[in-house]
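lol forgot to send this yesterday, sorry. C-alpha coordinates for the thing we talked abt
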Protein backbone atom coordinates (compact mmCIF):
# COMPACT_ATOMS: atom_id res chain seq x y z
CA UNK A 1 0.00 0.00 0.00
CA UNK A 2 2.84 2.40 0.90
CA UNK A 3 4.45 1.88 -2.48
CA UNK A 4 1.21 2.20 -4.29
CA UNK A 5 0.59 5.56 -2.62
CA UNK A 6 4.06 6.70 -3.60
CA UNK A 7 3.57 6.05 -7.30
CA UNK A 8 0.04 7.35 -7.58
CA UNK A 9 0.47 10.89 -6.35
CA UNK A 10 -2.21 13.31 -7.37
CA UNK A 11 -1.50 16.33 -9.55
CA UNK A 12 -1.38 18.70 -6.59
CA UNK A 13 1.27 16.59 -4.88
CA UNK A 14 3.24 16.66 -8.12
CA UNK A 15 3.11 20.46 -8.16
CA UNK A 16 4.20 20.60 -4.52
CA UNK A 17 7.06 18.14 -5.11
CA UNK A 18 8.29 20.26 -7.97
CA UNK A 19 8.00 23.50 -5.97
CA UNK A 20 9.98 22.00 -3.11
CA UNK A 21 12.59 20.53 -5.42
CA UNK A 22 13.06 23.82 -7.24
CA UNK A 23 13.14 25.83 -4.04
CA UNK A 24 10.03 27.85 -4.93
CA UNK A 25 8.91 27.11 -1.38
CA UNK A 26 10.72 25.44 1.47
CA UNK A 27 7.58 24.27 3.27
CA UNK A 28 3.90 23.57 2.65
CA UNK A 29 1.24 25.74 4.21
CA UNK A 30 -2.41 25.26 3.24
CA UNK A 31 -5.72 26.59 4.49
CA UNK A 32 -9.45 25.96 4.41
CA UNK A 33 -11.32 29.22 3.80
CA UNK A 34 -15.10 28.80 4.13
CA UNK A 35 -17.55 31.64 4.07
CA UNK A 36 -19.59 31.43 7.27
CA UNK A 37 -22.85 31.55 5.36
CA UNK A 38 -24.20 28.02 5.83
CA UNK A 39 -23.37 24.51 6.93
CA UNK A 40 -20.52 22.55 5.42
CA UNK A 41 -21.32 19.59 3.20
CA UNK A 42 -19.54 16.52 1.90
CA UNK A 43 -17.90 18.59 -0.86
CA UNK A 44 -16.33 20.84 1.75
CA UNK A 45 -15.13 17.75 3.60
CA UNK A 46 -13.14 16.88 0.52
CA UNK A 47 -11.51 20.29 0.48
CA UNK A 48 -10.79 20.19 4.23
CA UNK A 49 -9.26 16.73 4.15
CA UNK A 50 -7.29 17.57 1.03
CA UNK A 51 -5.79 20.73 2.51
CA UNK A 52 -5.19 19.22 5.91
CA UNK A 53 -3.89 15.98 4.41
CA UNK A 54 -1.33 17.79 2.28
CA UNK A 55 -0.09 19.83 5.23
CA UNK A 56 0.36 16.65 7.23
CA UNK A 57 1.95 14.71 4.40
CA UNK A 58 4.61 17.41 3.93
CA UNK A 59 5.03 18.19 7.64
CA UNK A 60 3.60 21.60 6.92
CA UNK A 61 0.86 23.70 8.43
CA UNK A 62 -2.87 24.00 7.95
CA UNK A 63 -4.80 27.18 8.73
CA UNK A 64 -8.45 27.56 9.43
CA UNK A 65 -9.71 30.84 8.07
CA UNK A 66 -13.16 32.28 7.79
CA UNK A 67 -13.49 34.20 4.58
CA UNK A 68 -15.89 36.70 6.06
CA UNK A 69 -15.44 39.66 3.75
CA UNK A 70 -19.08 39.85 2.67
CA UNK A 71 -21.25 41.14 5.53
CA UNK A 72 -24.59 40.50 3.79
CA UNK A 73 -24.71 36.74 4.03
CA UNK A 74 -22.53 35.86 6.96
CA UNK A 75 -23.60 34.90 10.40
CA UNK A 76 -21.83 34.04 13.63
CA UNK A 77 -24.06 31.00 14.16
CA UNK A 78 -22.38 29.31 11.21
CA UNK A 79 -18.89 29.93 12.58
CA UNK A 80 -19.45 27.51 15.46
CA UNK A 81 -21.08 24.81 13.36
CA UNK A 82 -18.28 24.98 10.81
CA UNK A 83 -15.58 24.69 13.47
CA UNK A 84 -17.38 21.77 15.06
CA UNK A 85 -17.56 19.96 11.72
CA UNK A 86 -13.90 20.52 10.92
CA UNK A 87 -12.83 19.46 14.39
CA UNK A 88 -14.92 16.34 14.04
CA UNK A 89 -13.30 15.49 10.72
CA UNK A 90 -9.99 15.59 12.55
CA UNK A 91 -8.41 18.51 10.72
CA UNK A 92 -6.27 20.31 13.30
CA UNK A 93 -5.51 23.99 12.77
CA UNK A 94 -3.62 24.13 16.11
CA UNK A 95 -3.55 27.80 17.11
CA UNK A 96 -4.14 29.11 13.62
CA UNK A 97 -7.77 30.15 13.48
CA UNK A 98 -8.15 33.33 11.46
CA UNK A 99 -10.82 35.67 10.20
CA UNK A 100 -10.31 37.51 6.93
CA UNK A 101 -12.13 40.45 8.51
CA UNK A 102 -9.20 40.87 10.92
CA UNK A 103 -7.13 41.88 7.89
CA UNK A 104 -9.40 44.72 6.79
CA UNK A 105 -6.78 47.30 7.82
CA UNK A 106 -4.11 45.53 5.81
CA UNK A 107 -6.42 45.20 2.85
CA UNK A 108 -7.15 48.90 3.00
CA UNK A 109 -3.42 49.60 3.08
CA UNK A 110 -2.92 47.25 0.15
CA UNK A 111 -5.51 49.17 -1.84
CA UNK A 112 -3.77 52.44 -1.00
CA UNK A 113 -0.51 50.92 -2.17
CA UNK A 114 -2.06 50.04 -5.52
CA UNK A 115 -3.43 53.55 -5.89
CA UNK A 116 0.00 54.99 -5.15
CA UNK A 117 1.50 52.75 -7.81
CA UNK A 118 -1.06 54.00 -10.28
CA UNK A 119 -2.63 50.54 -10.35
CA UNK A 120 -6.04 51.33 -8.95
CA UNK A 121 -8.58 54.11 -9.40
CA UNK A 122 -11.87 55.28 -7.97
CA UNK A 123 -14.67 54.89 -10.50
CA UNK A 124 -18.06 56.62 -10.46
CA UNK A 125 -19.75 54.39 -13.03
CA UNK A 126 -22.81 52.58 -11.78
CA UNK A 127 -22.80 48.80 -11.53
CA UNK A 128 -24.85 48.65 -14.68
CA UNK A 129 -22.49 50.94 -16.59
CA UNK A 130 -19.50 48.94 -15.42
CA UNK A 131 -21.15 45.87 -16.85
CA UNK A 132 -21.81 47.65 -20.17
CA UNK A 133 -18.24 48.90 -20.40
CA UNK A 134 -16.83 45.48 -19.61
CA UNK A 135 -17.40 44.04 -23.08
CA UNK A 136 -18.01 40.40 -23.82
CA UNK A 137 -16.04 37.26 -24.47
CA UNK A 138 -15.71 38.30 -28.12
CA UNK A 139 -15.52 42.08 -27.70
CA UNK A 140 -12.98 44.06 -25.69
CA UNK A 141 -14.20 46.39 -22.98
CA UNK A 142 -14.03 50.16 -22.93
CA UNK A 143 -12.04 52.19 -20.44
CA UNK A 144 -13.90 54.03 -17.73
CA UNK A 145 -13.87 57.82 -18.12
CA UNK A 146 -12.57 57.93 -14.51
CA UNK A 147 -9.58 55.75 -15.24
CA UNK A 148 -7.16 58.64 -15.64
CA UNK A 149 -7.85 60.28 -12.31
CA UNK A 150 -4.64 61.43 -10.60
CA UNK A 151 -3.13 59.42 -7.79
CA UNK A 152 -3.85 62.26 -5.37
CA UNK A 153 -7.48 62.42 -6.37
CA UNK A 154 -7.83 58.65 -6.08
CA UNK A 155 -6.25 58.66 -2.63
CA UNK A 156 -8.60 61.39 -1.49
CA UNK A 157 -11.71 59.77 -2.94
CA UNK A 158 -10.85 56.33 -1.56
CA UNK A 159 -10.37 57.81 1.88
CA UNK A 160 -13.71 59.55 1.55
CA UNK A 161 -15.28 56.24 0.58
CA UNK A 162 -13.86 54.79 3.79
CA UNK A 163 -15.12 57.77 5.78
CA UNK A 164 -18.69 57.18 4.71
CA UNK A 165 -19.04 60.11 2.35
CA UNK A 166 -20.71 58.07 -0.37
CA UNK A 167 -23.78 55.93 -0.66
CA UNK A 168 -23.69 52.24 -1.58
CA UNK A 169 -22.85 51.88 -5.25
CA UNK A 170 -21.91 55.53 -5.72
CA UNK A 171 -18.21 54.84 -6.08
CA UNK A 172 -15.99 51.77 -6.28
CA UNK A 173 -12.26 51.18 -6.33
CA UNK A 174 -11.07 49.29 -9.40
CA UNK A 175 -7.78 47.70 -10.30
CA UNK A 176 -6.24 49.29 -13.39
CA UNK A 177 -5.25 46.33 -15.51
CA UNK A 178 -6.38 45.86 -19.10
CA UNK A 179 -9.81 46.50 -20.59
CA UNK A 180 -8.90 44.55 -23.71
CA UNK A 181 -7.69 41.43 -21.90
CA UNK A 182 -9.23 38.24 -23.28
CA UNK A 183 -9.88 37.35 -19.61
CA UNK A 184 -12.85 39.41 -18.46
CA UNK A 185 -11.69 39.16 -14.84
CA UNK A 186 -8.70 41.31 -15.79
CA UNK A 187 -10.79 44.16 -17.22
CA UNK A 188 -10.30 46.62 -14.40
CA UNK A 189 -12.14 44.50 -11.80
CA UNK A 190 -13.80 46.16 -8.83
CA UNK A 191 -11.71 45.56 -5.71
CA UNK A 192 -13.52 47.64 -3.09
CA UNK A 193 -17.14 48.69 -2.79
CA UNK A 194 -19.14 50.92 -0.50
CA UNK A 195 -21.60 48.98 1.66
CA UNK A 196 -23.13 50.59 4.71
CA UNK A 197 -23.62 47.38 6.60
CA UNK A 198 -22.74 45.97 9.98
CA UNK A 199 -20.26 43.13 9.91
CA UNK A 200 -20.55 40.19 12.32
CA UNK A 201 -16.97 40.73 13.47
CA UNK A 202 -16.01 44.35 12.83
CA UNK A 203 -19.42 45.88 13.50
CA UNK A 204 -19.77 49.36 12.01
CA UNK A 205 -16.08 50.10 11.73
CA UNK A 206 -16.12 49.74 7.96
CA UNK A 207 -18.48 50.92 5.28
CA UNK A 208 -16.24 49.74 2.46
CA UNK A 209 -15.53 46.06 1.89
CA UNK A 210 -12.98 44.32 -0.34
CA UNK A 211 -14.11 42.03 -3.15
CA UNK A 212 -13.27 38.33 -2.97
CA UNK A 213 -10.73 38.35 -5.79
CA UNK A 214 -8.75 41.10 -4.10
CA UNK A 215 -9.15 39.90 -0.53
CA UNK A 216 -8.37 36.24 -0.98
CA UNK A 217 -4.79 36.50 -2.31
CA UNK A 218 -4.03 39.06 0.41
CA UNK A 219 -5.36 36.72 3.11
CA UNK A 220 -3.20 33.92 1.73
CA UNK A 221 -0.12 36.11 1.49
CA UNK A 222 -0.50 37.51 5.02
CA UNK A 223 -0.71 34.00 6.45
CA UNK A 224 2.23 32.70 4.45
CA UNK A 225 0.11 30.19 2.56
CA UNK A 226 2.14 28.42 -0.12
CA UNK A 227 -0.48 26.45 -2.01
CA UNK A 228 -3.90 28.04 -2.13
CA UNK A 229 -6.17 25.23 -3.22
CA UNK A 230 -9.59 26.09 -4.57
CA UNK A 231 -12.17 24.70 -6.95
CA UNK A 232 -12.25 24.85 -10.72
CA UNK A 233 -14.56 27.84 -11.11
CA UNK A 234 -11.69 30.04 -9.93
CA UNK A 235 -9.35 28.99 -12.71
CA UNK A 236 -10.15 32.11 -14.76
CA UNK A 237 -9.53 34.22 -11.67
CA UNK A 238 -5.98 32.96 -11.25
CA UNK A 239 -4.37 35.69 -13.42
CA UNK A 240 -6.01 38.27 -11.16
CA UNK A 241 -4.85 36.38 -8.05
CA UNK A 242 -1.31 36.44 -9.44
CA UNK A 243 -1.62 40.11 -10.38
CA UNK A 244 -2.65 41.06 -6.85
CA UNK A 245 0.20 39.22 -5.11
CA UNK A 246 2.70 40.53 -7.68
CA UNK A 247 1.63 44.17 -7.55
CA UNK A 248 1.56 44.11 -3.76
CA UNK A 249 5.09 42.73 -3.86
CA UNK A 250 4.71 40.03 -1.28
CA UNK A 251 8.08 38.38 -0.69
CA UNK A 252 6.69 34.82 -0.80
CA UNK A 253 3.71 34.88 -3.12
CA UNK A 254 1.22 32.06 -2.67
CA UNK A 255 0.18 29.92 -5.62
CA UNK A 256 -3.41 29.13 -6.52
CA UNK A 257 -4.20 25.56 -7.62
CA UNK A 258 -7.65 24.47 -8.75
CA UNK A 259 -9.26 21.04 -8.50
CA UNK A 260 -12.69 19.72 -9.46
CA UNK A 261 -15.58 19.98 -7.01
CA UNK A 262 -17.02 16.82 -5.61
CA UNK A 263 -20.56 16.18 -6.78
CA UNK A 264 -22.78 13.31 -5.70
CA UNK A 265 -25.31 11.88 -8.12
CA UNK A 266 -28.94 12.49 -7.14
CA UNK A 267 -27.99 14.37 -4.00
CA UNK A 268 -28.94 17.91 -3.07
CA UNK A 269 -25.98 20.03 -1.92
CA UNK A 270 -27.03 23.53 -3.00
CA UNK A 271 -27.57 25.81 0.00
CA UNK A 272 -30.52 27.47 -1.69
CA UNK A 273 -32.39 24.16 -1.99
CA UNK A 274 -31.51 22.91 1.46
CA UNK A 275 -32.62 26.19 2.98
CA UNK A 276 -35.97 25.75 1.27
CA UNK A 277 -36.33 22.18 2.55
CA UNK A 278 -35.54 23.39 6.06
CA UNK A 279 -37.88 26.38 5.91
CA UNK A 280 -40.76 24.37 4.51
CA UNK A 281 -40.32 21.80 7.26
CA UNK A 282 -39.68 19.01 4.78
CA UNK A 283 -36.51 18.15 6.64
CA UNK A 284 -35.69 18.44 10.32
CA UNK A 285 -33.05 21.18 10.06
CA UNK A 286 -29.67 21.35 8.33
CA UNK A 287 -28.61 18.16 10.07
CA UNK A 288 -31.57 16.05 8.93
CA UNK A 289 -30.00 12.62 8.34
CA UNK A 290 -31.25 12.61 4.74
CA UNK A 291 -29.00 15.51 3.83
CA UNK A 292 -25.28 15.41 3.12
CA UNK A 293 -24.16 18.30 5.26
CA UNK A 294 -21.34 17.12 7.50
CA UNK A 295 -23.62 17.59 10.50
CA UNK A 296 -26.29 15.45 8.83
CA UNK A 297 -23.86 12.68 7.93
CA UNK A 298 -22.53 12.66 11.48
CA UNK A 299 -26.06 12.53 12.89
CA UNK A 300 -26.96 9.69 10.57
CA UNK A 301 -23.97 7.75 11.86
CA UNK A 302 -21.25 8.22 9.28
CA UNK A 303 -17.79 8.24 10.82
CA UNK A 304 -14.92 10.52 9.98
CA UNK A 305 -12.98 7.46 8.89
CA UNK A 306 -15.67 6.59 6.34
CA UNK A 307 -15.61 10.13 4.97
CA UNK A 308 -11.83 10.08 4.74
CA UNK A 309 -12.02 6.76 2.88
CA UNK A 310 -14.64 8.19 0.53
CA UNK A 311 -12.61 11.28 -0.22
CA UNK A 312 -9.52 9.16 -0.84
CA UNK A 313 -11.43 6.90 -3.21
CA UNK A 314 -12.75 9.91 -5.12
CA UNK A 315 -9.24 11.18 -5.68
CA UNK A 316 -8.28 14.66 -6.80
CA UNK A 317 -8.94 15.66 -10.35
CA UNK A 318 -9.11 18.55 -12.76
CA UNK A 319 -12.27 17.30 -14.46
CA UNK A 320 -15.74 17.73 -12.98
CA UNK A 321 -17.59 14.49 -12.45
CA UNK A 322 -20.22 13.07 -10.20
CA UNK A 323 -19.78 10.23 -7.74
CA UNK A 324 -22.47 7.76 -6.80
CA UNK A 325 -23.90 7.95 -3.28
CA UNK A 326 -23.46 4.16 -3.14
CA UNK A 327 -19.73 4.71 -2.86
CA UNK A 328 -20.23 6.63 0.37
CA UNK A 329 -22.40 3.78 1.62
CA UNK A 330 -19.70 1.31 0.70
CA UNK A 331 -17.23 3.29 2.82
CA UNK A 332 -19.36 3.34 5.95
CA UNK A 333 -20.06 -0.40 5.68
CA UNK A 334 -16.37 -1.08 5.31
CA UNK A 335 -15.56 1.10 8.28
CA UNK A 336 -18.17 -0.29 10.66
CA UNK A 337 -18.33 -3.96 9.77
CA UNK A 338 -15.51 -5.09 12.03
CA UNK A 339 -15.55 -2.23 14.51
CA UNK A 340 -19.10 -2.35 15.75
CA UNK A 341 -21.14 -5.04 17.51
CA UNK A 342 -23.77 -7.00 15.64
CA UNK A 343 -26.92 -7.20 17.67
CA UNK A 344 -30.47 -8.36 17.06
CA UNK A 345 -33.37 -6.03 16.38
CA UNK A 346 -36.69 -6.89 14.79
CA UNK A 347 -38.07 -4.12 12.61
CA UNK A 348 -41.35 -5.70 11.53
CA UNK A 349 -42.27 -7.93 14.47
CA UNK A 350 -44.27 -11.14 14.35
CA UNK A 351 -44.76 -13.05 17.66
CA UNK A 352 -43.38 -16.57 17.82
CA UNK A 353 -44.26 -19.02 20.62
CA UNK A 354 -42.17 -22.05 21.47
CA UNK A 355 -44.90 -24.33 22.80
CA UNK A 356 -42.61 -26.89 24.43
CA UNK A 357 -40.48 -24.30 26.23
CA UNK A 358 -41.30 -23.98 29.95
CA UNK A 359 -43.69 -21.15 30.61
CA UNK A 360 -42.18 -18.26 32.60
CA UNK A 361 -38.62 -19.51 32.12
CA UNK A 362 -35.89 -17.14 30.90
CA UNK A 363 -32.37 -18.31 30.24
CA UNK A 364 -29.29 -16.29 29.38
CA UNK A 365 -27.48 -17.28 26.21
CA UNK A 366 -24.04 -16.08 25.25
CA UNK A 367 -23.26 -14.66 21.82
CA UNK A 368 -20.19 -13.10 20.24
CA UNK A 369 -20.59 -9.38 19.61
CA UNK A 370 -19.00 -9.67 16.20
CA UNK A 371 -18.22 -13.06 14.74
CA UNK A 372 -15.46 -11.59 12.61
CA UNK A 373 -13.83 -9.66 15.43
CA UNK A 374 -13.36 -11.57 18.67
CA UNK A 375 -11.91 -8.58 20.44
CA UNK A 376 -15.39 -7.09 20.71
CA UNK A 377 -16.18 -9.79 23.26
CA UNK A 378 -19.45 -11.47 24.10
CA UNK A 379 -22.77 -10.54 25.57
CA UNK A 380 -25.62 -12.43 27.15
CA UNK A 381 -29.06 -12.40 25.59
CA UNK A 382 -32.27 -13.46 27.30
CA UNK A 383 -34.19 -16.30 25.67
CA UNK A 384 -37.66 -17.54 26.52
CA UNK A 385 -40.90 -19.02 25.31
CA UNK A 386 -42.18 -15.93 23.52
CA UNK A 387 -40.11 -14.16 20.93
CA UNK A 388 -40.43 -11.73 18.06
CA UNK A 389 -39.14 -12.55 14.61
CA UNK A 390 -39.32 -10.55 11.38
CA UNK A 391 -42.65 -10.91 9.64
CA UNK A 392 -40.83 -11.73 6.39
CA UNK A 393 -39.12 -14.70 8.07
CA UNK A 394 -42.34 -16.71 8.10
CA UNK A 395 -44.52 -17.65 5.14
CA UNK A 396 -47.73 -19.61 4.85
CA UNK A 397 -47.16 -20.49 1.21
CA UNK A 398 -43.47 -20.12 0.56
CA UNK A 399 -41.90 -20.22 -2.89
CA UNK A 400 -39.59 -23.15 -3.60
CA UNK A 401 -36.31 -21.58 -2.56
CA UNK A 402 -37.57 -20.07 0.70
CA UNK A 403 -35.15 -21.05 3.47
CA UNK A 404 -36.86 -19.57 6.49
CA UNK A 405 -39.87 -20.61 8.55
CA UNK A 406 -42.95 -22.35 7.23
CA UNK A 407 -44.98 -25.13 8.74
CA UNK A 408 -42.97 -28.32 8.97
CA UNK A 409 -39.48 -26.81 8.55
CA UNK A 410 -36.68 -26.43 11.03
CA UNK A 411 -34.53 -23.30 11.21
CA UNK A 412 -31.90 -21.95 13.55
CA UNK A 413 -32.69 -19.07 15.86
CA UNK A 414 -29.43 -17.17 15.75
CA UNK A 415 -27.20 -17.84 18.78
CA UNK A 416 -29.97 -19.96 20.34
CA UNK A 417 -31.76 -23.18 19.37
CA UNK A 418 -33.17 -24.96 16.39
CA UNK A 419 -36.92 -24.69 16.16
CA UNK A 420 -39.50 -26.49 14.03
CA UNK A 421 -42.59 -24.66 12.87
CA UNK A 422 -45.79 -26.40 13.91
CA UNK A 423 -48.48 -23.91 12.98
CA UNK A 424 -49.71 -20.33 13.09
CA UNK A 425 -52.67 -18.23 14.24
CA UNK A 426 -54.52 -15.67 12.15
CA UNK A 427 -56.94 -12.85 12.89
CA UNK A 428 -60.38 -12.64 11.32
CA UNK A 429 -58.88 -11.10 8.14
CA UNK A 430 -56.56 -14.04 7.73
CA UNK A 431 -53.49 -12.10 8.72
CA UNK A 432 -50.86 -14.15 10.53
CA UNK A 433 -50.59 -12.91 14.11
CA UNK A 434 -48.51 -15.63 15.74
CA UNK A 435 -46.25 -18.50 14.74
CA UNK A 436 -45.95 -21.72 16.76
CA UNK A 437 -42.80 -23.78 17.06
CA UNK A 438 -41.19 -26.46 19.13
CA UNK A 439 -37.54 -26.33 20.06
CA UNK A 440 -34.91 -29.00 20.42
CA UNK A 441 -33.21 -28.49 23.84
CA UNK A 442 -30.18 -30.41 22.58
CA UNK A 443 -29.33 -27.63 20.10
CA UNK A 444 -28.40 -24.87 22.56
CA UNK A 445 -25.99 -22.48 20.82
CA UNK A 446 -27.50 -23.33 17.45
CA UNK A 447 -26.08 -26.69 16.45
CA UNK A 448 -27.46 -30.19 16.68
CA UNK A 449 -25.34 -32.90 18.33
CA UNK A 450 -26.40 -35.34 15.61
CA UNK A 451 -24.98 -32.97 13.00
CA UNK A 452 -28.26 -32.39 11.17
CA UNK A 453 -28.38 -29.20 9.12
CA UNK A 454 -30.97 -26.51 8.65
CA UNK A 455 -31.22 -24.24 5.64
CA UNK A 456 -31.92 -20.96 7.38
CA UNK A 457 -30.90 -18.90 10.37
CA UNK A 458 -33.18 -16.11 11.54
CA UNK A 459 -32.79 -13.45 14.19
CA UNK A 460 -35.19 -12.79 17.06
CA UNK A 461 -35.62 -11.01 20.35
CA UNK A 462 -37.17 -12.34 23.54
CA UNK A 463 -40.53 -10.61 24.01
CA UNK A 464 -40.61 -9.82 27.74
CA UNK A 465 -37.11 -8.31 27.79
CA UNK A 466 -37.20 -6.62 24.40
CA UNK A 467 -36.96 -2.87 24.25
CA UNK A 468 -39.38 -1.01 22.03
CA UNK A 469 -37.68 1.77 20.10
CA UNK A 470 -38.32 4.18 17.30
CA UNK A 471 -36.38 3.41 14.16
CA UNK A 472 -36.02 5.71 11.16
CA UNK A 473 -35.41 4.25 7.74
CA UNK A 474 -34.25 6.49 4.95
CA UNK A 475 -34.33 6.64 1.21
CA UNK A 476 -32.92 9.31 -1.05
CA UNK A 477 -34.71 12.60 -0.44
CA UNK A 478 -35.10 13.14 -4.16
CA UNK A 479 -36.77 10.87 -6.64
CA UNK A 480 -33.90 9.19 -8.46
CA UNK A 481 -36.02 8.14 -11.41
CA UNK A 482 -37.12 11.68 -12.13
CA UNK A 483 -33.75 13.32 -11.37
CA UNK A 484 -33.03 15.91 -8.71
CA UNK A 485 -34.59 18.97 -10.33
CA UNK A 486 -37.91 19.38 -12.03
CA UNK A 487 -37.22 20.44 -15.62
CA UNK A 488 -40.22 22.75 -15.81
CA UNK A 489 -39.86 24.92 -12.71
CA UNK A 490 -36.49 23.96 -11.22
CA UNK A 491 -38.08 22.65 -8.02
CA UNK A 492 -36.88 19.47 -6.34
CA UNK A 493 -38.43 16.14 -7.30
CA UNK A 494 -39.02 14.87 -3.79
CA UNK A 495 -39.32 11.21 -2.87
CA UNK A 496 -42.39 10.81 -0.62
CA UNK A 497 -40.80 7.73 0.98
CA UNK A 498 -37.55 9.34 2.03
CA UNK A 499 -38.39 8.79 5.70
CA UNK A 500 -40.18 5.81 7.26
CA UNK A 501 -40.65 5.73 11.01
CA UNK A 502 -41.34 2.37 12.61
CA UNK A 503 -41.28 0.74 16.00
CA UNK A 504 -38.83 -2.05 16.47
CA UNK A 505 -38.08 -4.57 19.20
CA UNK A 506 -34.45 -4.74 20.19
CA UNK A 507 -32.39 -6.86 22.53
CA UNK A 508 -31.82 -5.28 25.97
CA UNK A 509 -28.19 -4.33 25.30
CA UNK A 510 -29.35 -1.82 22.70
CA UNK A 511 -31.47 0.13 25.16
CA UNK A 512 -28.33 1.63 26.64
CA UNK A 513 -27.25 3.20 23.36
CA UNK A 514 -26.41 6.90 23.49
CA UNK A 515 -26.19 9.46 20.70
CA UNK A 516 -23.73 8.51 17.95
CA UNK A 517 -23.36 4.89 19.18
CA UNK A 518 -23.62 2.68 16.15
CA UNK A 519 -24.36 -0.99 15.63
CA UNK A 520 -25.03 -3.55 13.02
CA UNK A 521 -28.57 -4.82 13.42
CA UNK A 522 -28.22 -8.34 12.13
CA UNK A 523 -29.54 -8.56 8.56
CA UNK A 524 -31.17 -5.10 8.80
CA UNK A 525 -28.24 -2.77 8.33
CA UNK A 526 -26.10 -0.37 10.30
CA UNK A 527 -27.88 1.93 12.74
CA UNK A 528 -26.87 4.86 14.89
CA UNK A 529 -28.55 6.32 17.96
CA UNK A 530 -29.87 9.75 17.05
CA UNK A 531 -28.05 12.48 18.93
CA UNK A 532 -31.04 14.83 19.07
CA UNK A 533 -33.95 12.58 19.84
CA UNK A 534 -32.49 9.73 21.90
CA UNK A 535 -33.24 9.91 25.60
CA UNK A 536 -31.62 8.07 28.48
CA UNK A 537 -32.92 4.50 28.21
CA UNK A 538 -35.00 5.36 25.13
CA UNK A 539 -32.77 5.50 22.09
CA UNK A 540 -34.03 6.41 18.64
CA UNK A 541 -32.15 4.70 15.82
CA UNK A 542 -31.30 6.04 12.37
CA UNK A 543 -30.50 3.53 9.72
CA UNK A 544 -27.15 4.59 8.30
CA UNK A 545 -27.17 2.06 5.50
CA UNK A 546 -28.52 -1.37 4.63
CA UNK A 547 -26.16 -4.34 4.49
CA UNK A 548 -26.45 -5.11 0.82
CA UNK A 549 -25.08 -3.03 -1.94
CA UNK A 550 -24.88 -2.99 -5.66
CA UNK A 551 -21.67 -1.04 -5.40
CA UNK A 552 -18.44 -2.94 -6.06
CA UNK A 553 -15.02 -1.42 -5.83
P1 LIG B 1 -21.42 25.94 -1.81
O1 LIG B 1 -21.80 26.88 -2.89
O2 LIG B 1 -21.61 24.50 -2.15
O3 LIG B 1 -21.97 26.27 -0.48
P2 LIG B 1 -19.03 27.45 -1.59
O4 LIG B 1 -17.93 27.32 -2.57
O5 LIG B 1 -19.89 28.62 -1.66
O6 LIG B 1 -19.86 26.09 -1.63
P3 LIG B 1 -17.24 28.19 0.47
O7 LIG B 1 -17.53 28.40 1.89
O8 LIG B 1 -16.92 29.36 -0.35
O9 LIG B 1 -18.48 27.41 -0.12
O10 LIG B 1 -16.15 27.07 0.27
C1 LIG B 1 -15.05 26.82 1.08
C2 LIG B 1 -14.09 25.94 0.33
O11 LIG B 1 -14.68 24.69 0.00
C3 LIG B 1 -13.66 26.56 -0.99
O12 LIG B 1 -12.26 26.44 -1.10
C4 LIG B 1 -14.38 25.76 -2.03
O13 LIG B 1 -13.67 25.74 -3.22
C5 LIG B 1 -14.50 24.39 -1.36
N1 LIG B 1 -15.65 23.64 -1.87
C6 LIG B 1 -16.93 24.07 -1.94
N2 LIG B 1 -17.73 23.13 -2.50
C7 LIG B 1 -16.92 22.09 -2.80
C8 LIG B 1 -17.14 20.81 -3.42
N3 LIG B 1 -18.35 20.43 -3.84
N4 LIG B 1 -16.08 19.97 -3.57
C9 LIG B 1 -14.87 20.34 -3.15
N5 LIG B 1 -14.60 21.52 -2.57
C10 LIG B 1 -15.60 22.40 -2.40
MG1 LIG C 1 -19.31 30.57 -1.36
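and heres what i got for the seq, position by position
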Amino acid sequence: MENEAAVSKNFIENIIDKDLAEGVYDCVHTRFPPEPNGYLHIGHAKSILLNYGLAKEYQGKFNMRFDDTNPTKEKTEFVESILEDIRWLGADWEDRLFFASNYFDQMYEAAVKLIKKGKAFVCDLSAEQIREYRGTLTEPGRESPYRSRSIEENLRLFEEMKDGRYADGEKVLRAKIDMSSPNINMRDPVIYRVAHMSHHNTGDKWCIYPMYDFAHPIEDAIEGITHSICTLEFEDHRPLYDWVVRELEYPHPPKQIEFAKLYLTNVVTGKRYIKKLVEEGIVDGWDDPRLVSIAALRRRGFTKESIQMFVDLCGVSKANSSVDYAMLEYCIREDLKLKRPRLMAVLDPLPLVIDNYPEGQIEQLTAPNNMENESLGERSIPFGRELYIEREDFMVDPPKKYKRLFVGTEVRLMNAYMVTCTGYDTDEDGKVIRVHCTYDPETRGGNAPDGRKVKGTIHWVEASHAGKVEVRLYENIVDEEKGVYNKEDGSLNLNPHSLTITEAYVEPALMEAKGYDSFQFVRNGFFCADIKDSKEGAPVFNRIVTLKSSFKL
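The mean pLDDT is 95. anyway ping me if u want another try
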